[in-house]
# Entry
Amino acid sequence: MSLSGGCTALLVSAGRGHRFGGETPKQYLRLGGAALIRICAVRFLGHPAVDGVIAVIHPDDRELYGRAVDGLGLPDAVDGGPERQDSVRLGLEAMTAAAPAKVLVHDAVRPFVSDAVISAVIGAIDGETGAIPALAVTDTLKRGDQGRIKETVPRQDLWRAQTPQGFPYAPFLAAHRAAEGMMLTDDAAVAEAHGLAVAMVAGEEDNFKITGPEDMRRAERLQQGHGISRTGLGFDVHRFSSGRPLILGGVEIPHDLGLEGHSDADVALHAIVDALLGAVGAGDIGVYFPPADAEWQNAPSHIFLKAAGDAVAAAGGTIRGIDLTIICEAPKIGPHRDAMRRKIAEILQIHETLVNVKATTTERLGFTGRGEGIAAQAVASVEISSE
# Structure
């Protein structure tokens, strides 16, 4: 039975990281300027098949967590329990109102999980079947006692389990409720104990768990070559014009004036287009859509934004954030902010938490202050794969 409906990622982050040492729990240590838990959250937020992310944390870590995920728009974290299995169950219980069709459980200290692994796990989840990424054991295994080999363990059919581990939500919640107190080693074991089948998809060596200092050093080495962060800046201006609808951020806004331009003159989307193209070194909006070309007369600007998103993808890039500022005295942008975020995210097929829309005025100075038009500037953050 195939499942339709949403998919929520549950980040497990309630551990104290005693094996790592130090005062700061490892999930809040920084890698490339961002906390490990934030890197994981952004990864799942940026996946088109994931509808939301919720974290389970230690009750003492609320301040650390708040700083780590500031600006991502995540819901309130759930307090975890004494053991990892307890924390996962509590996170699942917190989802009962939303009841997603699928849930992914991911260690918040596996920062290099790829979109490919996430997609493979989600694609393998079915009505009574979960899925995990796994790697075949290639080393010879020994069972030891007091520093001596006792026996060689056959490695045939042995696999190393990773996360995210994904399951159909309702039967997985039932499995966790039934397994309370059993202290099984991972979520697949919980599912198995309840009779759920669990498929395996290909894991990746880079999707390792940071447990000790050497893992962190490995992560720092990998992070240097794992991807390149690029930033683009876009700016656009259009004057007011009568007799045209006002389109901003892909949304029609009630106003007595529209904007003058060859297309629909959506100054907000035009700024984002230039920011995205700039981030991947692909020129500007005029290269793709010349204003003298009759084909684009009165064209909706979502066409331009979709093309910019395609240019990012063609360059091996993934959009990690868009920050848009609209500059005008009128109309008021606040009532339409969320609709713009949703529309921009829909066009680019990214999660709306990766889109920020804000507005300001020039205190009645300059052409925007005189009410002659609207300006917009945008910053786009893109990660370019180094592969």
